[in-house]
TrEMBL record:
UniProt-annotated stretches for the region Disordered: 10-30
Organism: Streptomyces erythrogriseus
Pfam families with a match to the protein in the record: His_Phos_1
Name under which the protein is recorded: Histidine phosphatase family protein
Source taxon at top rank: Bacteria
CDD domains according to UniProt: HP_PGM_like (cd07067)
SUPFAM superfamilies recorded: Phosphoglycerate mutase-like
Length: 200
């Protein structure tokens, strides 16, 4: 059984400022492009049975810059639909809803985006996991997607409820790896970045 590798896309303007970025198709910042390029050495020499990417531009560009140009778009890897909270920070939401928590409360519908509950995101994550089962039997699988979606997917891979994705903080432009130990899914690496260049 192969490993499941997860790459969160590089930085965007909204990820840098903490604004919830679901369906808004933002490009990577220059720093985000550098983050994406930095993943290439971590993936060098690896062969994948399957490579899937969110269809959103920030994930597709990350895949390309990381050397995964043949990544297949997978609609279920798109980010959590934040509904009326698209483009809004948690701090701003809590000025009117002090106890609001994405992982337990979900989001209200918006004019452009209908919004999703944690359970609805979990259903999509489960579909992705079902799709990649056969490929994992052949080798490693690579997914390039978004922070909250990959956190939910990790929870589901570990047999946890979608809301337990809250436990797995995931940074932009990082690589993580889910493996097996004695037949059970485990986190083998998390938030990996290349080592910083040595200082003279």
């Amino acid at each position: 059984m192969g490993d499941l590798l997860l790459a969160r896309h590089g930085e965007t303007e909204w990820s840098r400022s903490g604004r919830h970025t679901g369906g808004t198709d933002l490009p990577l910042t220059p720093a985000g492009e550098a983050q994406a390029r930095s993943l290439a050495p971590l993936l060098a020499g690896r062969a994948f049975a399957l490579v899937l990417s969110s269809p959103l531009a920030r994930a597709r560009r990350t895949a390309e810059l990381a050397g995964l140009a043949g990544a297949e778009p997978e609609p279920d890897l798109r980010e959590w639909d934040y509904g009326a909270y698209e483009g809004v920070t948690t701090a701003d939401i809590r000025t009117t809803r002090p106890d609001w928590d994405l992982w337990t409360d979900g989001v209200p519908p918006g004019e452009e985006f209908p919004g999703e509950s944690p359970e609805q995101v979990g259903v999509r994550a489960d579909r992705v996991l079902a799709r990649i089962t056969a490929a994992l039997e052949e080798g490693d699988v690579m997914l390039v997607a978004h922070g909250h979606l990959l956190r939910v997917l990790t929870a589901r891979r570990l047999g946890l409820p979608p809301s337990h994705g809250r436990l797995f903080r995931l940074e932009t432009g990082t690589l993580s790896r889910l493996s097996l130990e004695h037949g059970s899914p485990v986190i083998a690496e998390w938030n990996t970045r290349p080592p910083a260049p040595a200082q003279d």
